[in-house]
Design goal:
elongated; 16-stranded antiparallel beta sheet; alpha+beta; 16 strands
Length: 440
Amino acid sequence: MRLLISAAAVAAAAAVAVTASWGSAADPTLGGAAAVVPSDAVAFAAIDTDTSSAQSQALNALLAKFPNLVTQLQQRFDQHTGLSWQNDVEPALGGELDLAVLPGSTPELVGLTQPADASKLAALVAKAGNGLVTRTVGGWTAIADSTSALDALTNATATLAQNDTYVEATSRLAGDALVRAYANGAEGQQLLASLHGTAPSTPAKLQWASADVVAESDGLKLQAFAQTTAPSPAAYSAQLPSEIPSGALFVADFQANGDASAPSSSRLPAQLQALLAQLRPALGGETALYVSSGLPPTVTLVTHPADPQAAYTAIDGAVSSLASTGGIFSMIKPPLPYAVVDGALVVSTSTAGIQDYRSSGDKLSSDPAFEEAAQASGLLPGQTTGFVYANLADVLPLVQMLGPAAGISVPAGLDALRTLTAFGGRSGELTTGTVFLEIK
C-alpha cells in the first residue's frame, strides 16, 4: 500500500533524522485513533504530522542542521512513491497519522487520520491507487487495502483504548512525542503461528512492547519498554569507563558469563556464529570492546575471565581464524599483545593499546564527549544491562577516509552528529532500552 508505505517513511524520518524524558501521560498527544481500533490489534503506532506542534518544530530545528540530506531524502521519497511529499502528502494529513496492524489469516494494515481538508486526502488516495478504500469511523478517516479491514473497525465491540495491556504499555511513554508505538506479544505470537499454519506451542514470552521517539533540543531520543517473562541480563554498575582511556571512538560494555551454550541468532552469518561460539567461554564479568583513534585504529578487549591465560588462547585463536578470512580483517596480525591488569585480561591489536589501558592518564569516564553523551541520554549514573557509545564526530571522518577500501560510503553533510549512545535496563519483568542520537 503506497500511502501506508509513505506513512512508514514519516516514522522513519522522525527516527532517522537519523535515526522527553521519562514520563506518563494520562491524556497523550498522540494515539487518538486507539478509540476506534479493535482491542486485539497486533500493533499500533501514532505519528505526529502536525507541522505546528512543539515536537515538529523541535525536529525541524534538528533537521535544519542537515539541509542537503533532508533535500535528498525528500527527493528519494518523491521518486520512490510517485507522490510529492510537499504537494500531495503533507496537505492531506491531519495532526497525527495512526497505523494499526489487525490480526487475521492475512494481517491488514490500516491508516487513520483526521484531515483538515478531506478533499486533499481523497485526492491523495486516488493518486496512490492500488485499490485503496476509505471510510469514516468515529471521526477518523480510515484507509486500507480492503473493506474487510474497515469492517473490523466499524464492528469493533471493544477498542484498543479500553485494552488494559495497551493502557499499561503506553502509560510509560512520553505524551509529547514524534512517534508512540505499541505491540501485543500474545497477539503477535498468534499472528506468526497463523501465518505458518501452526498453533502457538508455548506462552508468549513477550507480553507487550512500547516505544516513543522524542525530539529534544540536542538530539533524538528513542525509549523502549517490554514486559517479558524471557530471561534477561541482570543490571550492573559499569566500572570499566573509569579504566578505558579517554578519547575512545567506540565502546561496547556488557556482562559476560562465559556460557558456551548460550544461544546465538540464526540470522547471523555462520562465520560470525562460529566466532561468537569460540569467544563466549573466554569472556567473564564486565567486558568491554573499544576502539581508539589511530591509523589503523586500535581495537582492545577487556574482560574478567576465571582463567586469563586460557581465555587469551581462545581469543587469539578466534581472532586468528577471523584474520585468515581476508578482506579488512587481514589487517589484524596475531598473535595479539595482551596483559593481565588488576585481574582483567586486556587484549589489543597493538602494544599501544595495552600501554594506554595501563596508563594513569585521562579515562573515558572524564572524557568530555562521553560525559556529555551520558548525561544527555541518561546512561550514567545508575545501573544498566549493557551500553554502546560512539563518538560520531570523530568516527565519521575516519570512516569517510578508510571506508572506501572496505566498500563503505558515508554521505557528506553529517557534521552536526556528535555521539550515539544506547543502553538497556531491567526491573523485574520490565526491560527498557534507550537510544540517544546527539545533534549539535
